[in-house]
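TEACHING EXERCISE
Course module: macromolecular assemblies
Task: Read the component lines below, then compare them to the predicted structure of the full complex.
Student: A.B.
Group: 4
Components provided:
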Amino acid sequence: MLPLSVVCFTGLLFLGGCGQAMLSDEHLANRSKKEFSKMKQQESMSTNYDHREMITRIGQNIAGVAQVDLPGTEWEFVVFNKDEPNAFAMPGGKVGVNRGLIDLASGNEDEIAAVMGHEIAHVALRHSNKRMSQAISLGVGGVILDVALRNQSSTDRMLGRAAYGVGSTVGLALPFSRSNEQEADHRGLYYSAMAGYDPRAAISFWQKMEANNKGRRMPQFLSTHPNPGNRIQFLRENMERPLALYREAKVSRGETPNP
Ligand SMILES: [Zn+2]
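Instructor-supplied answer key:
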């Protein structure tokens, strides 16, 4: 482990002084944009029009609510043609959803909105930023700061992929902390509900994800999004207000909410 004082040496990248190593939002958004472009070139992207239209529509609805926390974001929503049920959101509003996740949710838009709300909440709460800053300070994956400073772009790529939950390409993944998970669950309920999606779908989605996990190796999604204690119970206990907001959102659009 590198001492925090060493991290402070990266003065160009970090804001907030030695006590709180944080990358600047602008730096992370720029790196994310470049990294996302590379992913789109390297990974197989879905050609399924219905999937792409659905993910863009859900994403834009949630981004409309989250915009207050992430003003000026250039949102982009992409469906990757991969079996693994996974989704991620990078700083700067770059969001990826795998076909496998749409399949796991059986195309249920409320459930997909629950996942996208959760992912976008991680970005709004700057969790990726904290996680990447921590990864650099810990020298995760054998990256030592000396190398990081000499070869900024490859370090960013490696840490970026790890931090955004697409770490299998480099053989590592950095989990969000359990408190990060609970914060994202909570904020995500409000995002999806206010965007007009039934927040109770978060419960059915996580149940599906856990059932899917039984007897298998840890899926990528759960390895980066660990269960924060009793997630289902937490969601149930915090459902009243999001449910009321969902009903208001539906009625204001002249639509009928789920009973
Ligand atoms: Zn999470």
